[in-house]
Amino acid sequence: GAQAGRGFELQQPQDKVWVAAGETLNLACTMSRGGPPGAVRWLKGLGSGNKTVYEQKGSFPRVTRVVSESDTDFSIHIRDVRPEDAGTYYCVKFNKSLLGGDEVFQHGRGTVVSLHETALVPSMVAVAVVLCFLLLLSFFIALCMYRRKRRGEVESQCLARPAATGSFLPIPLRCCAGTSGTPRFDFSCDSIHHLCALLQQSSKEDNDIHYADLQPLPVAPQHSRSPSAACSEYASIRVAAQ
Asked: Residue 170 above 50 pLDDT?
């Protein structure tokens, strides 16, 4: 055996392997030719507590050779990995002893197999978080654009209204009620705009207007005034005595 094993080399390159439950575990092991006669096995653990994971003889439903019938490549696949599959795996070359038993001739340095949660769950959570963030961002942007649009419409109306007010021309005003020195005029519609137009026109004509007030009129009885003479508002304008 010592003569036959001279120059024999066994390589187990993987130090650590992470795998998710339900996936397939790949364990690599290669060896040179010229070894002593004896079996090659995959063991989980060394010593008296080891468990045979795969050997050339026997039935191992979840384990298959990567290269079938090869005498140098003893890499294996373990399908449907379970939590109890975690541990340290060794590729072992045995030598038949003179007494008919097998003894360890050479083994690899061991591959530590660890299980982690399936990689799909974190990735799905990350995708869901990103989608929620994008959705909230889109909603916020749409809300800001809507509010900006509404603000622009309001500002446009506010800017357009004085321009329209400035374009009013003086109109004939119908006297509603009043006393001497304080005439009162009826504004049938848009009273504020008419009053502003009157003030602007009076300013242009250098009239001395001291006070202008716009107030609601008291409700008048229906029988005393015709519908055409009904006033909803009045303006009192005080003019300096001539």
From this structure: no
